[in-house]
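Handout, page 2. Input:
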Amino acid sequence: MREISAAEDSLLMLQIREGNREAFDALYRKHWRFVYNAAYKRLENYDQAKDIAQDVFIQFWTQQTSRSSAPAIDNLSAYLYVAVRNNVLKWMESEKKFVPIPDLLVQLESRRDDADALIRYNELRLAFESVVEQLPQQQQVIFRMRYDYELSSDEIADKLNVSPKTVRNQLGRALTKLKTALLMTVVCISSFSFAA
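Output:
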């Protein structure tokens, strides 16, 4: 049964690459519920999950029909799942729906009685510390002064004898590295709300 479904998907994708709108509609009907559910599971918002699902299929159509060298998709379900995840993350970032990592750690720690929360807390804490320790020395020092000791950029600049702009630049780079490295870990912790 799974092989038949994969063969159907392959045929539909071939037709879609040729601009066949009916093939796209068939593929959309076949996979819409899966895509919507994957988005809803992460967002718990009906309207936003519908919008994400719509975006995923629009991007799929555009990618498959606008480039003759569009990459072959061996596993459509996996492709769609990753597309949903990426679109959810983009939306969360654009809406500023991420809780700062230190706040997330506090939130997880407060649910220590829940065995799953403790496991998630430990996983995230280890991942967080590992990434911080891999930052270049100056970024690491500035990051810890800002978030562990809650010093302002000006205070950090004074203590390190650098300009506030240097502090802001180093913090920005550190946060980008942390966000990139920890994004997947945070997304896996799906039972917590990341809304601000």
